[in-house]
Amino acid sequence: MENNAPGASIFAVSANDADLNQNAEISYSFVDNRQQEEIASSAYFTINSKNGNIYALRSFDYEQQKHFQVKVQAQDAGSPPLSSTTFVNVIILDQNDNAPIIVSPLTWNNSVTVEVMPRSTYPGYLVTKVIATDEDSGQNARLSYEFLEASDPSLFTVGLLSGEIRATRAFSDQDIFAVRVVLCVKDNGQPSLSSSATISFIVMSNVTEKSFDQRDEPRHSEFFSGINSYLIIIFGSTSFLFLIIILCLLTLKCRQDRNTTEIYSSAVCCCNERNSTDGFNRTPTGRDPLNYSGAVQTGSYHYSVCLSPESSKSDFLFLKPCHSTLPFNDRSVRDSAARN
């Protein structure tokens, strides 16, 4: 049995010898079996060498060590001495020395709070389950559950062996209250050990369920049709304005491209007949090219300056000779041929 007193006799070994006198005198001792035991048997037991009584040197704990095996040798006093050995199995018996421990639901200072939703309950509804453990074995670990106290015993019941706490009736939204019960868990040992916990059941209003119900309620079709009409008008107006803006931007872009093309195509060569004594004359106008004339040695020459629209950004001028004997149209054609 565990929790024994140190020094108590736990077993006795006896041997017989057919010899007489000194050859029949037997002594007992332990033989260490290091292959099977990490600690020598002499650390736990001692044996009387005369009568073979075995004594325990310490108190044993069933939860830590359940079984021992010691090797005992009986030897006579003859010459040469003869001996024989045997194994003694020491089995520690469990004693009900551990009280049950409640592991679920998790308790704090032996109390716990459980919330109950009214619409979730019905007769036999499983509110919670109490789970307890016992380190003992056999009947000492067989547990039973019961209510010691209850502020309203008619609301909940507990399973005797399962620990399941169930509702006895359905709750409504008006049943907003708190119920306090004291649960006792006890084992079947002799004497019986027990543990208790206070469980507070709080019946709460279904705030979440009500919000879900309100969302799930069907709404009037007239309300939906009015909203749909407003949305269609808003989206249609927005799309129409966006289309008008796109068309305006495209129109402005086309006009800018056309003006740019006209400016580039307006670069033509012009010639004005001047006398050789006129020198260079510069008469710039909006789209008309710049005309310059000048005298070189004895011949009379006329030059026409053709400027591109980007000429304002450069100081380079390209002078082309124009023949006075040719009409203006021929000069332009010849100048075009010269460019090509």
Descriptive account of the structure:
The chain crosses the membrane at residues 230-252. The protein is an alpha+beta fold. The protein has three domains: 9-91, Sandwich (Immunoglobulin-like); 101-210, Cadherins (Immunoglobulin-like), CATH 2.60.40; 266-340, no CATH class. The protein has three helices and 18 strands. The strands form six sheets. It has a four-stranded mixed sheet, with no helix packed on it.
**Spatial order of the strands forming the largest sheet:** 8-15-14-11
Q: Provide the number of structural domains.
A: 3
Approximately what portion of the residues adopt beta-strand conformation?
A: 25-35%
> What would you say the CATH architecture of the largest domain is?
Sandwich
Largest sheet properties:
4 strands, mixed
Beginning-to-end CA distance, first to last residue = 125 Å
Helix content: 10-25%
Task: State the total count of DSSP E strands.
Answer: 18
Mean pLDDT: 76
Oligomer: single chain
CATH superfamily of the largest domain: Cadherins
The arrangement of helices and strands along the chain is EEEEEEEEEEEEEEEHHEEEH
Count of separate DSSP helical elements: 3
